[in-house]
Specification:
Layout lengths: L14 E5 L6 H11 L3 E3 L3 E2 L14 E2 L2 H9 L3 E7 L2 E6 H9 L3 E5 L2 H10 L4 E7 L3 H11 L4 H14 L8 E4 L3 H16 L8 H9 L7
Parallel strand pairs: 1-7, 1-8, 2-7, 3-4, 8-9
Antiparallel strand pairs: 3-6, 5-6
The structure holds guanosine-5'-monophosphate.
Length: about 220
């Protein structure tokens, strides 16, 4: 997906933060965006949670020990970190900073605690999107349909939802995820508009300056 100002105008990447209560359909939405838009890459978090069946180290997460996680915090290598559903999660700093400076957008699939910390660290880069399920009943159905987590994990996550949804107003956009294609249209529209924000298009001043340098313009 290209935008009207791309590719000749140098721009800073968008920090696209997507959060939701567990089971709202965020993973399907973010995966679809990554498949369709090759200017967006996923920030791969570190976590102390064990890998689920089918999850690949370095693709879904970097699975690390608690000691390794603590070491990354101490060395300042995490942009943010949080404890979610009994495990630690964090965003490695260096890959994100390099991508944004290179005009590449970075997608963050992180919870509201991480989103708050990232906003403090990088307010001008960040665009926050909160995904809501159409109803609590639908959310419960989706959580059970996953059938990957034990019953007590499902119960724990359902209880967390009540708390998680209270954070909706901390985001720039809120999407009620009724169906994939409608939500993808909204997500894509948001990303295109955010890419075109004047402050991100760092090369605009230089681009406009060339018009002033044209010789012999009629006055
Ligand atoms: P899951 O264990 O289902 O993959 O993720 C559980 C929750 O942790 C999700 O809400 C997800 O967005 C959040 N999460 C994943 N990575 C990070 C991270 O790096 N930082 C924070 N703060 N939350 C994360």
């Amino acid at each position: 997906m290209t935008t009207a100002t791309a590719p000749m105008i140098r721009r800073r990447g968008v920090m696209l933060v997507v959060s939701s209560p567990s089971g709202a359909g965020k993973t399907t939405l973010t995966r679809t965006l990554l498949e369709r838009d090759h200017d967006v890459s996923l920030s791969i978090s570190v976590t102390t949670r064990p890998a689920r069946p089918g999850e690949i180290d370095g693709v879904h997460y970097h699975f690390i020990t608690k000691d390794e996680f603590q070491g990354m915090i101490t060395r300042g290598e995490l942009l943010e970190h949080a404890h979610v559903y009994g495990h630690s999660y964090g965003t490695p700093r260096s890959a994100v900073e390099a991508a944004l400076a290179d005009g590449k957008d970075v997608l963050f699939d992180i919870d509201w605690q991480g989103a708050q910390q990232l906003r403090l660290a990088a307010e001008h880069d960040l665009v926050g999107i909160f995904i809501l399920p159409p109803s609590l009943a639908e959310l419960e159905r989706r959580l059970r349909a996953r059938a990957q987590d034990p019953e007590e994990v499902v119960q724990h996550r359902l209880a967390q939802v009540t708390n998680d949804v209270t954070h909706w107003a901390e985001y720039d956009y809120v999407l009620v995820n009724q169906d994939l294609e409608t939500s993808m249209t909204a997500l894509t529209a948001i990303l295109i508009a955010e890419r075109m924000k004047r402050r991100r298009n760092l090369g605009l001043a230089e681009f406009v300056e060339q018009f002033r340098r044209q010789p012999d313009l009629p006055s």
